[in-house]
Amino acid sequence: MIRYIIRRLVGAILVVIVISMMTFGIFQIGPKLSGASPAYLYVGKVSTPAQVLRVEKRLGLDKPLVEQYWIYMKGIVAGRDFTDGDQVVDCPRPCFGYSFRLNTSVWELIKDRFPVTLSMTIGAAILWLVFGVSIGVLSALRRGSFFDRAAMVVALAGVSLPVFFTGLVLLSIFSYGPSWLQWFPNVHYVAFTENPAEWAHNLILPWVSLAFLFAALYARFTRANMLETMSEDYIRTATAKGLKRRTVVARHGLRAALTPIVTIFGLDLGALLGGAILTESTFSFPGLGLLSYNAISAQDLPIILGVTIIAAIFIVVANVVVDVLYAFIDPRVSVS
Amino acid sequence: MTVVQDQAGSYRVEGPKAFLDVRDLHVTFPSEDGKVSAVAGLSFQVERGQTLGIVGESGSGKSVSSQAILGLHKGTRAEVTGEIWLDGEELVAMSSQQMRALRGNKVAMIFQDPLSSLHPFYSIGQQIIEAYRVHNKVSKADARKRAIEMLDRVGIPNANKRVDEFPHQFSGGMRQRAMIAMALVNNPALLVADEPTTALDVTVQAQILDLMKDLQREFNSAVVIITHDLGVVAEVADKVTVMYAGRCVEQGLVRDVFYRPQMPYTWGLLSSMPRLDRERKSRLDPIPGTPPSLIDIPPGCVFNPRCTHQAAVEAEQGAPICRTDSPALVEYTDGHLVRCHLTTEQRYHIWNDEIKPKL
Questions:
Q1: How many A×B Cβ pairs under 8 Å?
Q2: CB count in 10 Å sphere of residue B311
Q3: What angle do CA A141, A142, A146 make, to 5 degrees?
Q4: Whole-angstrom Cα distance, residue A246 to residue A140?
Q5: How far is residue B55's CA from residue B226's CA, in Å, rounded to a whole number?
């Protein structure tokens, strides 16, 4: 088992390295294809060639691509120094460089913004798991009932409506609506360490809008899985043993039906931790998603590069965790 | 011991005549296209220590009727009418609660595909222990001992090690043995086996049938074995019921039905079976046509669209009654029941002159 985990981890590290090469390559080569040095993005539209050359030299953009990549990766692992004339700026590890626009360390920005994304994702994940899965199971067990049909209509709406729509509707009702409905006025992020009650109060609307979409997806997925499982032969065997219906459903049905949900949950969680761009933008929550959204608008390459690599790491790690969990859950998964 | 298709009402007052006494069983399923009459008027009796084989094509209602015996249609949309008497208790009218107490305990079932019928996430031992503990208040350790004992009894080597293995680690034959161990763990008085050998290799089939025969002798249980394989019936059954489109078309002792079959459908089944001990013919003789839709059952005899002997009936009766009147299940000899419009004399000649020589 330990060998299996180690092997998976080594594979994951290789995947992250390949992803970093690709992102680095794309973001360095991209501007060059349009005939401009990435340094232009730093200096801005009003620039003289001399300024651009100076910036290129300072940021090391005049070196060959492979060497730049090496310096970048070394910066992440060991930190690096930026020299600006006679000034030396130390960038401690993990160094993802400095933002073109904000002139702050990318890592500091990520560290600063991540708790926002984490708060939003974890809360929403709990909501959507609880509601999505239980609604899906109940729908499957009462297939064709009023509950089932109503739940599936709502789920269809949930899947079809984008987060920025549900988010804005919620905001216009509970934040800007009639005074007796203004339960969440002036929604903004408050750190958990600052005031836990305010933290939760301000996060409810983002949680609900993000969870609505995922709960709808999970309800549909769970229902389909559960229906399929309950028609399996081994469910008939369990009934033929004389087990109570409840035991058949819980011990034999759910156990098999919920296993695939572990997979998609892990991957969804990993993907969202890299930034829930739409939800964060809708509610102006300064998480990783809003950071990368603004960085994209401002063509702030180091931030885009840094967040992309961090997001990729989350997804790859989630994959490994899911695979290892699976080896425990499903005895048919061979670890050798 | 006689089975007669009585007029409704007259037999309701009678108590059971055998250990398992199924009377006029009907199972219908509602569907969008109309009612599916999966079993219509099935009756049979099985004593302890006896084996009844139910044969028929796919969709002839074999499995549906066997599941009715376990009450597996309770709580579904299927409509079950008639009577199923097991050891003096009537099962059709029984509550789900009472039925659940019998299921797996007094009456157990073995299914066709042991791989899909065993839960992939639980070890063989866990599944047998669960079956034992539903009906017996014993500790896990005792139940485990019992599970190992049963696995050992059905011929699984190293039972105390293999008890912790999962279904996918067993071979097909071993899985079916484990299934049998699970079914027999509570010493059921009635064992219903739904195509227990269909998913297995031929060599393994024989072992499983032998095992079932041994265990039946040991536990003195009644066995209902459902199969489409006449060879299996010949091997293990004492009595046989031939089903077609949800109806019993011929029933009797195995030697009667096999050596003096009286119904054109049974003739068809026997003719379409390949035989090694006869000269190889260019082709087998399949029954022409396909089974009817159970929603739209043909009027008259259910087998009439595929029967090649209707002209003989018309010549004798002066009218094509096969297409209008449903023949009754009547006694041909003691305990040998047949549902056909051909006269006894005609059947004797057709069997002896036309069918038997070609087998």
A1: 66
A2: 11
A3: 155
A4: 14
A5: 6
* 3-state DSSP of A289-320: HHHHHHHHHCCCHHHHHHHHHHHHHHHHHHHH
Query: Comparing C-alpha atoms, which of B74, B121, B96, B87 is closest to residue B17?
Result: B87
Asked if B109 and A239 come within 8 Å (Cβ–Cβ), the reply is no
**CA dihedral sign of residues B66, B68, B71, B77:** positive
Buried b (16+ CB within 10 A) or exposed e, B5-38: beeeeebeeeebebbbbbbbbbbbbeeeeeebbb
Residue A199 pLDDT > 50: yes
Helices (H), ranges, A161-195:
163-174
Interface list for B 73-132 with A (CB within 8 A): 75, 100-105, 108-109, 111, 113, 116-121, 123, 130-131
Q: What angle do CA B264, B337, B109 make, to 5 degrees?
A: 95
Best CA proximity match to B252, nearest among B193, B338, B194, B343: B338
Identify the pLDDT of residue B44: 93
Query: Per-residue confidence of chain B (359 residues) as pLDDT tens digits?
Result: 334 555 555 554 567 888 999 999 999 999 888 899 999 989 999 999 999 999 988 888 888 998 999 998 888 889 999 999 999 899 999 999 999 999 999 999 999 888 899 999 999 999 999 999 999 999 999 999 999 999 998 989 999 999 999 999 999 889 999 999 999 999 999 999 998 888 888 888 888 898 889 889 988 999 999 998 888 899 899 999 999 999 999 999 999 999 999 999 999 888 887 777 766 665 777 888 888 888 888 888 999 888 888 888 888 888 888 888 889 888 888 889 999 999 888 888 888 888 888 77
Chain segment A126-147, per-residue pLDDT in tens: 999 999 999 999 999 999 899 9
Q: With residue A155 as reference, give the H or E element that holds it.
A: helix A146-160
Q: Is B170 on the interface with A (CB under 8 A)?
A: no
Residue B281: per-residue pLDDT: 62
> Among all chains, which residue has been given the structure tokens 């097909």?
B172
Peptide bond into A94 cis (omega under 30): yes
Contact between residue A219 and residue A139 where contact means Cβ atoms under 8 Å apart: yes
Q: Quick check: A20 and A309 in contact, CB under 8 A?
A: yes
Instruction: Take residue A80 and report the two structure tokens written for it.
Output: 């690096």
Note if the pTM is more than 0.90: no
Chain B contact for A232, CB < 8 A?
Answer: yes
pLDDT for position B255: 92
Q: Which residues pair with B21 in a beta bridge?
A: B45, B85
The whole-number pLDDT of residue A314 equals 92
Q: Which of B142, A318, B189, B61 is nearest to A326 (CA)?
A: A318
**Distance of residue A3 Cα from the nearest chain B Cα, in angstroms:** 22
Nearest CA-CA distance, residue A221 and chain B, Å: 20
- Of A111, A110, A107, A98, the closest CA to residue A41 belongs to A98
Round to whole Å and give the CA distance between B49 and B218: 9
Q: Is A238 on the interface with B (CB under 8 A)?
A: yes
